[in-house]
Design goal:
heterodimer; A: mainly alpha; MetI-like fold; 10 helices; B: Rossmann fold; 7 helices; 11 strands; globular
Amino acid sequence: MVEDWFPVLLSLRIATIAMLVVVPVGLALALVQARRRYPLRRIVDALILLPLVLPPSVVGFFLVVLLGRRGPVGELLERWLDLRLIFTPGGAVVAAAIVALPILVKTAQPAIEAVPADLERIGRSMGLAPLEVIFRVTLRVAWRGVLAGIVLAFARATGEFGATLMVAGNIPGRTNTMPLQIYAAYERGDDAAALGYVLVLTLLSVAVVIGSSWLSGDEDLPR
Amino acid sequence: MSAPAIEARLRVRVGSGAGTFHLETRFDLDAGILVLFGPSGAGKSLTLQALAGLVLPEEGHLRVGGEVLFDSSRGIHVQAHRRRIGYVPQHHSLFPFCNVTQNVAFGLPRARRHANDPRVRTLLDEFGLTERAGAHPQTLSGGERQRVALARALAVEPRLLLLDEPFASIDHEGRAPLRRAVRELLEVHSISAILVTHDLDEAYQLGTRVVRFERGRGVEEGTPDEVLPHPQRA
């Protein structure tokens, strides 16, 4: 079974921190894409979806190029904030956030689109400012779809492997998340060590599938 | 001669590119119910949304109760939530996550959002909803739903009420008593209303004045007798 709990806790910590960024950014994107019609909407839609479609190694490569010490973002982060992301848990957070973001947006967006626009109009006419309408009307009707998106995105962030390996490496005691630990154990032929983490990730995934299916199954929307 | 309580001159652009067309409307109302009458697709509902501030007109002028809410030449556009104009649509009129009381109290300050608030209690009573105060929208009839929607719109004390075919989803027998109740309650609360309908009987029963709409334009304005075809000849 699991002897070293560090990878489990690290994976959960990385996914949790990633979600602190993914939830507000993803919800804002889902709201804009669901409710606004603007010229570049389709292109923005494609860009949001891209990390979901690209092979993880390609996402990882782009991130290394961007966040590396000589990359356009990495150089600025190091110069201004003395922050290095490559081969750090911070890099793993960025990789997890990038791959989790499209899952949240693409699950929450249809739930928001299904909220009748008349309900939002009524909210405005009753004195609610636009942001109040989002929290008191839109998200209260669409909460199941939004929560399902958050749960799925968290699961994706926890299980992220390819991009994390390229950006954060597999440094024991520092960046060895559960998926990386499974890979390393398998590589050295230690199936028993891999199995514990496989079980933890499988249980988490089963819980997520059941949870998201329950959440998206019974909308209390007028049809 | 004093200025009318509501004065509207609005031009709204609809669509983009080759499919663009313009809605144009102009009317004055001192008190009572103004009916926007015309066939579906004539631009009545979009006109209501422009009055509510939910759609930005291309140009024009709107004054309600002495306050200019929109004036393209002076760059004035008061946002929808600051206009104090109530809006009741035909469908999806109730918040599905609220019971009757919570729906009626929805727009009130947080401390007043409960069944014991005097205004909520009065409105539930006036609209015959006291017995259904705890019921959820899914369990209400069409007539009950629209009564809740009207009570909720009145709860925030609007200076003008916009009604977008509010009786269309109600069965024929239920419409007449609800129309009477709405007319009486608007008089009791001294609130003017603009009602969208394509129902001739409704326009006659409720309209103080009528604007007849055709293909995006208000083509005629006057009393119901002046503007509408006679019900028996129509």
